Amino acid sequence: TYFVLIIARVIVSWFANQSVHPLIPLVYQLTEQVLRPISRLIPPVGGIDLSPLFALIMLRFLLLLLGW
């Protein structure tokens, strides 16, 4: 679920940043808990936030460790 939410957040940040759809704040609230600590450790590079990429890599690694 977090994979889909993080990818949705990235897409929303590209295209619908000023949209008032009620799901957009929900996506941001659900993913902020995972992305905020990573954003603190890894600063933006050239204005691009790489925290979603690292979050997806870490989540995938965690799933591999758990055997899912």
The averaged pLDDT comes out at 90
DSSP summary, beta strand count: 0
Largest sheet: none
Described by the principal axes of the CA atoms, the overall outline is globular
Q: Helix count?
A: 3
Regions with pLDDT < 50 over 5+ consecutive residues? none
Termini separation comes to 13 Å
The fraction of residues in strands falls at under 5%
Q: What structural class results from the helix and strand content?
A: mainly alpha
Helix content: over 70%
* Gyration radius, in Å: 13 Å
Order of helices and strands: HHH
Summary, kept brief:
The chain is mainly alpha-helical and 68 residues long.
Verbal overview:
The chain starts with a helix and ends with a helix. By secondary structure, it is an all-alpha fold. The chain contains three helices and no strands. Helix content is 72%, strand content 0%.
Topology:
Blueprint: H1 2-15, H2 23-41, H3 51-66
Helix pairs in contact: 1-2, 1-3, 2-3
Q: Could you list some keywords that capture this structure?
A:
68 residues; mainly alpha
